[in-house]
């Protein structure tokens, strides 16, 4: 793993955006997995700015978001559909038909997850997965567990994950859906390249565990240690608990 540390969260987010732009300019038909959450917001801001300045062309790209809440979909407040529309999709020249987000309102969720997996496969798999990390080590909504699902699946959210998402639901964690659909850990790990972005002191402990601890499904992000092409982009706060040899 290649770990890069920046002085501020904004700088780290801009660096992650630059990595995405680099991939996009080397391969305009990039197939990229995208995260939601607070951490990537400044990264999306940097991507939108780059697009406005003519430095990022999404016209041939395909995106697959990592996850969505069960019960929520396009136009629903609190959905990751809405998050992506307001932070990226409404501001760049990405074809809407190639911007994929799991539909948490699908009448048949089994068909929805199977179709998502098929669409990813037909697109040739992910060239790049851009990831955040949950405070509990989750990737997408692959929550810590004794065993993980390789394929896109339906998941029960852990209480700490529902609390972490309360902000999207008026600060009420009880209003956060109990289930989600998530890209599987196998689908994520098959991405040819990975960029993991983590910022802020609340991530320091889990970043250290994921990057320098043992590989375990109890810390899903630790599985990235086995991936051949990972860039971890951190700010100083998120890097604070890493062993010194990492610098
Ligand atoms: P956060 O979420 O950026 O809001 O901390 C990250 C994640 O859960 O993957």
List the helices and strands and how they pair.
Elements: E1 2-6, H1 9-26, E2 31-34, H2 41-52, E3 62-65, E4 67-69, H3 80-87, E5 99-100, H4 109-122, E6 128-131, E7 153-156, H5 159-164, E8 179-182, H6 185-189, E9 193-198, H7 204-212, E10 230-235
Parallel strand pairs: 1-10, 2-3, 2-6, 3-5, 6-9, 9-10
Antiparallel strand pairs: 4-8, 7-8
Helix pairs in contact: 1-2
The site of 2-phosphoglycolic acid has 8 residues, from loops.
Can you describe this structure?
Helix content is 29%, strand content 17%. It contains 7 helices and 10 strands. It has helices spanning 9-26, 41-52, 80-87, 109-122, 159-164, 185-189, 204-212; strands at 2-6, 31-34, 62-65, 67-69, 99-100, 128-131, 153-156, 179-182, 193-198, 230-235. The strands form 2 sheets. Strands 1-10-9-6-2-3-5 form a 7-stranded parallel beta sheet, covered by helices on one side. It binds 2-phosphoglycolic acid (PGA). The site of 2-phosphoglycolic acid has 8 residues, from loops. Residues 35, 37-39, 132-134, 164 line the site of 2-phosphoglycolic acid (PGA).
């Amino acid at each position: 793993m290649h770990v890069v540390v920046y002085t501020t969260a904004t700088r780290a987010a801009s660096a992650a955006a630059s990595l995405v732009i680099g991939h996009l300019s080397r391969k305009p038909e990039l197939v990229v997995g995208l995260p939601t959450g607070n951490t990537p917001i400044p990264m999306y801001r940097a991507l939108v700015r780059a697009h406005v300045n003519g430095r990022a062309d999404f016209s041939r790209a395909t995106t697959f978001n990592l996850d969505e809440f069960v019960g929520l979909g396009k136009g629903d407040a609190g959905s990751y559909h809405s998050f992506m529309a307001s932070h990226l999709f409404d501001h760049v020249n990405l074809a809407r038909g190639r911007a994929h987000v799991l539909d948490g309102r699908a009448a048949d969720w089994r068909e929805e997850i199977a179709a998502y997996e098929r669409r990813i496969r037909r697109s040739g798999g992910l060239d790049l997965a851009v990831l955040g990390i949950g405070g509990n080590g989750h990737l997408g909504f692959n929550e810590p567990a004794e065993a993980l699902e390789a394929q896109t699946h339906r998941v029960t959210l852990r209480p700490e994950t529902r609390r972490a998402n309360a902000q999207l639901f008026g600060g009420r964690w009880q209003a956060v859906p109990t289930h989600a659909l998530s890209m599987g850990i196998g689908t994520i790990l098959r991405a040819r390249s990975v960029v993991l972005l983590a910022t802020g002191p609340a991530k320091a402990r889990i970043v250290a565990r994921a990057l320098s601890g043992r590989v375990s499904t109890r810390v899903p992000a630790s599985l990235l240690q086995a991936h051949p092409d990972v860039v971890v982009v951190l700010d100083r706060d998120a890097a604070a608990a890493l062993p010194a040899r990492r610098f």
